[in-house]
Every structure is written in structure tokens, then in C-alpha cells.
Design goal:
- This protein is α/β, with parallel strands linked by helices.
- 36% of the residues lie in helices and 16% in strands.
- It has 9 helices and 7 strands; from the N terminus they run H-E-H-E-H-E-H-E-H-H-E-H-E-E-H-H.
- The protein has a 7-stranded parallel beta sheet with strand order 3-2-1-4-5-7-6.
- Helix 3 runs antiparallel to helix 9 and helix 4 packs parallel to helix 6.
- The chain is globular.
- The chain starts with a helix and ends in a 5-residue tail after the last helix.
- The model has no long low-confidence stretch (mean pLDDT 91).
- It binds adenosine-5'-triphosphate.
- Adenosine-5'-triphosphate (ATP) binds next to helix 2, strand 4, helix 5 and helix 8.
């Protein structure tokens, strides 16, 4: 199993606006369960479902680099950062060479996974990727569980595309939306951010109303 996994790209994509300890801890769980495989922390430059300014991309990228600097297994990845149009997951999966017997492993929270069927070329995603899901909400995964094969051993998802593993490891109950709202209300957020990211935000007055 170990030799199969080392060759498989593992991607944790996000807006990371800002990156928080929920993302970091969740990515570390993935690496741990997949034999310490590196996890690409892939910044969505122009997420399809959200507006984002060039200024915001620069800050988000810098904060991502700061937050990953102490974590050997987490690798900031800017593959999607310079996409001029919306980020399309399938294009990234194809760039990374995802195929049936050597899939890309796409990591996401169940809130994001619940919308996967609306992603562009969902059927092709299923043929070229497997998914690793963190439970963080009560989002309905019924459709995904019909389309992907549920496995009990996380290492199995590396063997071929179209499989799904749902992690029950606890995740931190925090979102970037909550952090942005707290900062704008001048409430403390230090327990959810890497200290270097917090300093970066304070020095540049980010997210302040
Ligand atoms: P926002 O509140 O702005 O939507 P977010 O905190 O959910 O942000 P995103 O960058 O949108 O973060 O999410 C990237 C990925 O990280 C998604 O798959 C999301 O489900 C997952 N994620 C976000 N927060 C957590 C968390 N606390 N634990 C585990 N996964 C998380």
C-alpha cells in the first residue's frame, strides 16, 4: 500500500481566506492516515462560486506559505492561483495526471463535498480521482455515496479512481467566514490561526470593517 500512495498526488484545495488551524489540522490528519504522504495545499485563485480580488490572492498565498512553513508534509501549491477564469477542479486533476489506476486524491470537507455533483465534468472527476472527506457538518453525501465506492481503509483510495473515504477524526469547529466576522468585530481569533498568519493580518489590517 505504501508504495502506491507515494506516487499519488493528494490535494487539499481551498480559498483559504484566511488559512486557519482547521485547515492545517485536517490536512495533517490526511497525511497521517495516508502514510505521511505530502499534501498539496492548493489555493483557488479565482473560485467559481466566489468573487476574489487580485490583492486578496496575494495575501491568501502569503498566509498559506506562512502557515505551512512549520509543517513538513504540507506543501503550498499555486497551480490554480494564476488561472484567469474560474478554477475547475477537473483541469487541475488532469494537469496532475489523474487516471483510473493512478488517481488524484481530492480532499475536502463534507460541506464542499455535498456540492460535488454540480462541479464541471463531475463524471470525469469520478473517473480520475478518489475523494477523502472530513466530516465537519451534517451535509448530505447521499449522491456521492451512490456514485463513489466507500472504503474503510484510507490507503485503498490510492489504488483506483472513484473511491471515497470518510474520516471520523475530529476536526476543529471553525470556518474562515467566522474568523473574518470575528476580526471585523475586533474579537480574538488567535486560537484558530498560526501566529505568523495572525501577525500578517494585523499588520495589514485585513478583514477589518
Ligand atoms: P469559508 O468559511 O470562507 O467558506 P472555509 O473555512 O470553509 O471558508 P475554504 O477555504 O472555503 O475554508 O475550505 C477549503 C476546504 O477546507 C473545504 O473543503 C472545507 O470543507 C475544508 N474546511 C474548512 N474548514 C475546515 C475545518 N475546520 N476542518 C476541516 N476541513 C475544513
Amino acid at each position: 500500500m505504501r508504495s502506491a500512495i507515494v506516487d499519488v498526488p493528494v490535494v487539499f484545495g481551498g480559498t483559504f481566506d484566511p488559512i486557519h488551524l482547521g485547515h492545517i489540522e485536517a490536512a495533517k490528519v490526511v497525511s497521517k492516515l495516508l502514510s505521511n504522504v505530502p499534501v498539496r495545499m492548493m489555493l483557488a485563485g479565482n473560485p467559481r462560486l466566489r468573487k476574489s480580488s487580485p490583492e486578496s490572492i496575494k495575501h491568501r498565498w502569503r498566509m498559506l506559505q506562512i502557515a505551512c512553513a512549520d509543517e513538513a508534509q504540507l506543501v503550498p501549491d499555486n497551480t490554480e492561483m494564476y488561472d484567469r477564469c474560474s478554477t475547475r477542479t477537473i483541469e487541475t486533476i488532469e494537469k496532475l495526471g489523474g487516471e483510473c489506476t493512478k488517481p488524484v486524491i481530492w480532499v475536502l470537507g463534507d460541506d464542499a463535498a455535498a456540492n460535488m455533483e454540480s462541479w464541471i465534468r463531475y463524471e470525469t472527476i469520478r473517473q480520475k480521482a478518489s475523494v477523502f472527506i472530513h466530516k465537519r457538518t451534517d451535509a448530505c453525501l447521499e449522491r456521492l455515496l451512490r456514485d463513489f465506492e466507500l472504503v474503510e481503509n484510507p490507503l485503498e483510495i490510492a489504488s483506483r479512481a472513484g473511491q471515497i473515504y470518510i474520516s471520523r477524526d475530529p476536526v476543529l469547529d471553525i470556518s474562515a467566514t467566522t474568523i473574518r466576522a470575528k476580526i471585523s468585530r475586533r474579537e480574538p481569533v488567535d486560537r484558530w490561526l498560526h501566529p505568523g498568519v495572525l501577525t500578517y493580518i494585523i499588520e495589514r489590517h485585513l478583514y477589518q470593517a
